[in-house]
């Protein structure tokens, strides 16, 4: 059965809206401290607490509209609940900051495991978006694996050596820009190993 067609603007709003909302709310509340139940929470913790249900609602709406969530989205949601929840519960922002590291390490390790078996797990996720020859998928998978491990190391460097505000800026825009530029740089690979569809 064909997947329901969803307006691309709506889909993008559901995927990126919670992240942008987190960014905007953090800039608004970053210098404020809230006392809840006798415990002081800074703006970052309060924004994190609001981000978790907002993200889950967005993913729920996306699933309702499309009937599908990718494995990456599901794993990301689980880690957001676990590490975001730990940050709020323990009033410690470090748990939420290491979440991207764990996500990228997890996906990088999964792709590496597939490569060691001579398979491209990336192909399972992305084949419908860009059909490639087998060799092209293996090359792209090796490069994406390196990207994931590189982003994990970069996240560790940023949150451990820079301010929370710098990390929020980097998390919101830096990762997105890095992934975008990475795939732009793969244009030669797509051209060399791309497959034409039957309709073409």
TrEMBL record:
It comes from the Bacteria. Keywords: Cell inner membrane, Cell membrane, Membrane, Transmembrane, Transmembrane helix. It is found in: Cell inner membrane. InterPro entries: YciB. The chain crosses the membrane at residues 12-29, 41-65, 71-90, 102-120, 166-190. It is a multi-pass membrane protein. Pfam families: IspA. Plays a role in cell envelope biogenesis, maintenance of cell envelope integrity and membrane homeostasis. Belongs to the YciB family. This is Inner membrane-spanning protein YciB.
């Amino acid at each position: 059965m064909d997947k329901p067609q969803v307006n691309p603007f709506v889909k993008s709003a559901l995927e990126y809206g919670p992240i942008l909302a987190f960014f905007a709310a953090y800039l608004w509340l970053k210098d404020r401290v809230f006392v809840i139940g006798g415990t002081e929470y800074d703006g970052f913790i309060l924004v994190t607490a609001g981000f978790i249900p907002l993200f889950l609602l967005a993913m729920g709406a996306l699933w309702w509209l499309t009937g599908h969530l990718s494995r990456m989205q599901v794993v990301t949601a689980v880690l957001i609940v676990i590490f975001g929840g730990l940050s709020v519960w323990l009033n410690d922002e470090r748990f939420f900051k290491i979440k991207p590291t764990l996500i990228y390490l997890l996906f990088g390790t999964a792709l590496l495991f597939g490569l060691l078996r001579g398979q491209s797990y990336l192909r399972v996720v992305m084949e419908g978006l860009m059909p490639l020859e087998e060799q092209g998928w293996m090359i792209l998978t090796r490069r994406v694996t390196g990207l994931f491990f590189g982003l994990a190391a970069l996240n560790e460097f940023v949150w451990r050596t820079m301010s929370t505000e710098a990390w929020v800026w980097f998390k919101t825009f830096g990762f997105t820009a890095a992934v975008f530029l990475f795939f732009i740089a793969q244009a030669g690979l797509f051209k060399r190993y791309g497959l034409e569809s039957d309709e073409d």
